[in-house]
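Prompt: For my understanding, could you write out one protein's sequence and backbone structure tokens?
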Amino acid sequence: MKINPLDDRVLVKPAEAETKTASGLYIPEGAKEKPQQGKVVALGPGKRLDDGRHASLGIKKGDQVIYSKYGGTEIEIKGVKHVILSERDLLGVIE
């Protein structure tokens, strides 16, 4: 199955949640925080403008991004969790 996002939507594969704290303590499954960063897997063509053209997106496939904690829709593709977000839900690109 292949997902092609529409308009200014972005498909992101979230990073794995931390399993240990900086001091070496293991975090129980129920206490892990939802990740807020991940890798861009697919992009839509961009938001449609009034003249029918698509505005280009400010990111590209493969970028590591930070996104809003409660933004987007979680989906599962071949057993792997992904998030579909609007470009406005992205907060930054990790370089």
Remarks:
- The radius of gyration is 15 Å.
- The longest strand covers residues 37-43.
